[in-house]
Amino acid sequence: MKSDALRGHLDALILAVLEKEPLHGYAVMQAIQVSSGGALELPTGSLYPALRRLERAGYVQGEWRMVGGRRRRTYELTKAGERALAAERAEWRDFAAVVEGVLRPGTTPA
Amino acid sequence: MKSDALRGHLDALILAVLEKEPLHGYAVMQAIQVSSGGALELPTGSLYPALRRLERAGYVQGEWRMVGGRRRRTYELTKAGERALAAERAEWRDFAAVVEGVLRPGTTPA
DNA sequence: TCTCTATATGTAGACAGTCTAGTTATCGGG
DNA sequence: CCCGATAACTAGACTGTCTACATATAGAGA
């Protein structure tokens, strides 16, 4: 996987794994890794800034918790985050359709 | 379409429209616009640097021509470019599958 | 006990590709 | 004569991702 192919789509993935249940950062990382079949091992230097960005945007809400002597910041999808996720999904569908249309060999549509 | 959703996938699109026939920059722009159903109007500030990058990489070969008093630089896909295109197509398939897997609502695979 | 791994969060700075906005130039139509 | 389409190109801004680093706890195993 090219390193920056995700550019512009990472937010969607994070919102998607937070849809089912609130997770803390490290768990988000693992959830994405699992649901991508191991293909995506996103570095913490990508994840944490993205989470803060999403929080600033009001799409997730973070809360500190102590669990077994370790501090965790658990993020929960907000209403605005749900709407953003729906928009991201629609956007992805459009984007994928466009790329596949151009990438498809042979026919050039009228 | 988010402005930088293409990030990392533009090269693939350019190589794809050059697969059928050699085109000059402006024609590449139009070909992508047409084959994307009008969704992608990529600015020349994105296109021309990308073409030069692809030429430096040896994936396309450019040649100056004069047509009706206007100079054109026509780009042709090289053998290496064909291989790169095949690789980009495979990469896109993988990428799309991964994103869709994570984005898909409901089930979290084991 | 000591060490190593996994857990857990975060920052600083590099990097690179895309975009904005601009330049130059020819041709054809109104 | 001017304007829009064609045609190519650059400088610099922008921004999101990555590399590498820093910190700290818990638990397993030697």
TrEMBL record, chains A, B:
<dbReference type="InterPro" id="IPR052509">
    <property type="entry name" value="Metal_resp_DNA-bind_regulator"/>
</dbReference>
<dbReference type="InterPro" id="IPR036390">
    <property type="entry name" value="WH_DNA-bd_sf"/>
</dbReference>
<feature type="domain" description="Transcription regulator PadR N-terminal">
    <location>
        <begin position="14"/>
        <end position="86"/>
    </location>
</feature>
<dbReference type="InterPro" id="IPR017799">
    <property type="entry name" value="Tscrpt_reg_PadR_acidobac-type"/>
</dbReference>
<dbReference type="InterPro" id="IPR005149">
    <property type="entry name" value="Tscrpt_reg_PadR_N"/>
</dbReference>
<dbReference type="Pfam" id="PF03551">
    <property type="entry name" value="PadR"/>
</dbReference>
<dbReference type="InterPro" id="IPR036388">
    <property type="entry name" value="WH-like_DNA-bd_sf"/>
</dbReference>
<protein>
    <submittedName>
        <fullName>PadR family transcriptional regulator</fullName>
    </submittedName>
</protein>
